Amino acid sequence: DPNEDWCSVCHDGGELLCCGSCPRVYHLQCHVPTLGATPSEDWTCLLCLDILKCNIPRESAGSKRKSPVGLSGRELLICERILLHLFCHELSVPFHIPVSRTVPNYYKVITKPMDLTTIKQKLSPSHFNHYEDVPEFLSDVKLIFKNCYTFNHKESQVCQQARTLERDFDVLVQQFLPEHYADLRDAQPDPQPDYESDPERRKKPRTASTSSSPPEQTVVIS
Known about the structure:
The chain has 222 residues and is mainly alpha-helical. The protein is built from 7 helices and 2 strands. 28% of the residues are buried.
């Protein structure tokens, strides 16, 4: 069997859907977008789809809602493609889900938390806070990195992971959304002292990672 044994997103086993074009496998709920049912045998994951050549309608992805606003069909597909790449990146695990409420002071320091799962939910046309444009999507992804740099020491493992992931994200935007690449500069966070270097923050307890994932899912950088 040429396919992998673990979901490319959550790295867990179980009933998995195999891509017909690459070794990746997914749980239905882990793929972006979420799959409601098992597709045909010749199914191809979004990472293998040539989205730049797809014939996608230009109408708003939210056209079935009461207020027809939001991403176009093409924009939605590209944003989903970028997000799935981030989910599958081996260093992205700490950013998959919201930071646990048990992390001391996190929600006092970070007033606007963000994570990949929340972004996935907001990409759904049925979501009450569905993205209205591409820059809004880009800004939320950048916010994940900003929060990481703000709360954690700049030399921490999780910040190293964030920097690598952010570089990959920038490359993807330049590749698939070149007309919005300049928006990344607008989405760059203002320089801020990290949590540990700020004298006032240093008085408070903190953790080394923003991840609430189980220890076995934490990626160790050598």
